[in-house]
Specification:
Elements: H1 8-13, H2 22-26, E1 32-37, E2 41-46, H3 48-51, E3 65-67, E4 81-82, E5 86-87, E6 90-96, H4 99-104, H5 110-121, E7 127-133, E8 136-145, H6 148-153, H7 168-172, E9 178-182, H8 184-196, H9 198-203, E10 204-210, H10 218-227, E11 235-239, E12 249-253, E13 258-262, H11 264-271, E14 292-296, E15 310-314, H12 317-328, E16 332-336, H13 339-345, H14 347-365, E17 372-374, H15 378-382, H16 387-403
Parallel strand pairs: 3-17, 7-9, 9-10, 10-14
Antiparallel strand pairs: 1-2, 4-5, 6-15, 6-16, 7-8, 11-12, 12-13, 14-15
Length: 415
């Protein structure tokens, strides 16, 4: 029985794949395709003859290796670093100045406003990100946006599998810099890929990410729709969040004659149960390797109709320069913030980061392969936990691994 990662197939079979799509883009042999496994997520499908002994993709796979020290330019940046939130040049709080973008977005529209600024003022060719699949609105696809209308139609969170790295070839072939928006794991893949792909590195004008607690599988959405007594074939539109803060899950169906909605709290508490195991191991919920990362300023949420507010973590000099130009041009309304506000707003994500070392320890006890995380100070963060919480982080993971059979290698072809 293989107990260590030798090929990209091992990453998938040991349930460590993040579904980012980087291997599809990076494979020069055309031996990988992507499929959405309903109960799991987006996963690579391999050409057995080509991939059985090939190790090329391992060097850019965030399921296998994540190095927070790389920064967004391939080298560690000497900027202020916090044990839990990582390196930041500045921390801000605020929202998009454009009221339409702010309303459509899930938490203030900051990423959409930055992307729009780059398109209109920084000579950006396009924005590569994730949007709803029109033919199956409960699923996602990788899209490019070139103007405000494109961005506005694709704002809001998408709590379903997404693989934006599968479109990186479009950025590599672009004639001008582009913006990339993805999950922290997608950005981790980009930080590894740009070391190997000079044209990609040149054309990545700005790398953005959002705070992430994990990606539910498609099965999560389908089960929620079943509870709402809606069949997928009836659906015309599905938004997970947006149209106000925090925004409800909203389904338009039956030829647009009917509509149902579920509050954010109700929908997320249901969908989060369908996150894959790899999401529970991630210490990078705040996106350390992007130029800028942002997410809900939950400590400000009162339910009184606020249109949405985000915390913005500026991670690189490039991000700092573009953010300040966007503010000066009137695209953003921001006020200074600090690490204490981030801790207050994102307690759950930071607690998860503290527990990561314990979860990995449980996997080591069972001789189960783990991702290699570099630059996250996982042990130091774990020591901040009370003794009982430390023990729980190990024992609960141990129990999950044993009861669900996760300590054994999976059979990918039987999924």
């Amino acid at each position: 029985m293989i107990r260590r990662i030798k090929t990209i197939r091992d990453v998938v079979d040991w349930r460590l794949c993040t579904g980012c799509g980087a291997c599809y883009y990076a494979c020069n042999k055309g031996a990988i395709s992507l499929i959405n496994i309903e109960s799991v997520g987006i996963r690579p499908k391999f050409n057995r003859k080509v991939c059985s002994s090939c190790t090329d993709c391992l060097s850019i796979c965030p399921g296998n290796y994540v190095n927070a020290n790389l920064g967004v330019n391939g080298v560690a940046e000497k900027i202020e670093s916090d044990l839990l939130i990582g390196p930041t040049l500045e921390i801000w709080e605020g929202f998009a100045a454009d009221k339409e973008l702010r309303f459509f977005a899930a938490s203030g529209g900051v990423l959409s406003a930055l992307a729009l600024y780059c398109l209109e003022k920084e000579h950006t060719e396009f924005v590569l990100h994730t949007g709803a699949n029109p033919s199956q609105p409960w699923t996602n696809r990788t899209v490019i946006s070139r103007n405000k209308d494109d961005l506005a139609a694709r704002t809001g969170s998408r709590y379903a599998p997404a693989s934006p790295c599968d479109g990186l070839q479009l950025i590599e072939e672009a004639k001008a810099p582009c913006v990339f928006i993805g999950k922290p794991c997608d950005v981790a893949a980009v930080s590894l890929l740009r070391k190997q792909r000079p044209l990609l590195n040149t054309n990545l004008g700005l790398v953005l990410t959002f705070f992430c607690a994990g990606t539910p599988s498609t099965k999560g959405t389908l089960e929620l729709l079943k509870k709402l007594d809606i069949t997928p074939k009836e659906i015309e539109e599905l938004r997970y969040r947006g149209n106000g803060w925090p925004g409800s899950l909203r389904v338009v169906y039956n030829n647009r004659l009917k509509e149902k909605s579920v509050t954010y709290g109700e929908s997320w508490s249901f969908l989060e149960k369908f996150r894959p195991f790899r999401c529970h191991l991630c210490p990078d919920g705040l996106g350390q390797m992007a130029d800028i990362s942002c997410g809900d300023a939950w400590h400000r949420y009162t339910g009184n109709g606020d249109a949405g507010r985000s915390l913005i973590l500026v991670r690189s000099q490039r991000g700092h320069e573009i953010l300040h130009r966007a503010m000066a041009a009137g695209y953003l309304e921001l006020t200074p913030s600090d690490t204490s506000e981030v801790v207050a707003a994102q307690e759950g994500l930071l607690e998860k980061r503290k527990e990561t070392f314990g979860r990995l320890t449980a996997m080591h006890i069972l001789l189960t392969p783990t991702p290699r995380f570099v630059g996250f100070s996982l042990f130091e963060a774990w020591t901040e936990l009370p003794l009982l919480t430390k023990l729980r982080s190990i024992l609960s993971t141990f129990k999950r691994l044993v009861h669900r059979g996760l300590w054994r290698r999976g059979d990918y072809d039987s999924v």
